[in-house]
Write a structure and sequence with these properties.
Layout (H helix, E strand, L loop, with lengths): L1 E9 L5 E10 L4 E5 L6 H8 L7 E6 L2 E2 L2 H4 L2 H10 E4 L12 H11 L5 H11 L15 H13 L5 E5 L7 H13 L3 E5 L6 H4 L2 E5 L5 E6 H5 L2 H6 L4 E7 L2 E7 L5
Parallel strand pairs: 3-8, 3-9, 6-7, 7-8
Antiparallel strand pairs: 1-2, 1-4, 4-5, 9-10, 11-12
Helix pairs in contact: 4-5, 4-6
Amino acid sequence: MIELHDVGFKWPDGPAVLQGLTLKVDPGEKLVLLGANGCGKSTLLKLLNGLLLATSGEYRYRGDKVSKPLLRTPQWSSMFRREMVLLFQHPEAMLFNPTVADEIGYGPRQLGLSDSDERIVEWAEILDLQSLLEKPPYTLSGGEKQKVALAALLALDPQCLLLDEPMANLDPRSSGWLVDYLLTTEATVIITTHNLSMATELGERCLILDEQGSLCFDGPVKQALADMVLLQSANLVHRHRHRHGQVTHSHPHIHDWE
């Protein structure tokens, strides 16, 4: 489904954000993308979603080289936008319609899906948004905005979910629902998280970016999380001193945060 060949990205007159990324993702795979803040995780998701274009290397989706001309081709773009969806780390960046109902229905209507109203009702019920359907999204709490953004994406029945810190604003019940959904969906999932203890629940394969935006690990999640040297080199764990009675010592620690 996804192929990256020596992909890099840099802003004009800026340093490289991503460099030398080569990997393949098959349909239905569940990947957890890890890395320290600023390593390029969100940039990589935007590149996969076609919001940014690689400045070096090649990105192919279902065998087609993703480029500006191809993204401007109506038929291909319509297919790509329905299949490949991105949940931003901050849902406010995604919400712009006058009501929650309009927000959920926006994508299906833009793509000309005849059952857009049914999709609004279905996903509002699944994510417990029925009482909010007529409210403006800007009046909602952070968790409610996150659920509306999720509903707007899932209403498209996508084939690939790119999720940037999706648990960050969700309450425990909603987080549990999302984990269950991701485990059972047939869609491909690439998800970033700072919650390392939850990573094994979110996918089988782990990608770790180092602080230079290079891929330093591609393999089983459990193997990555057991390698403290790897995690420390990627700045995913830290070492600090502990006192146990009269004894003080230092060792690496995982501290989850959202």
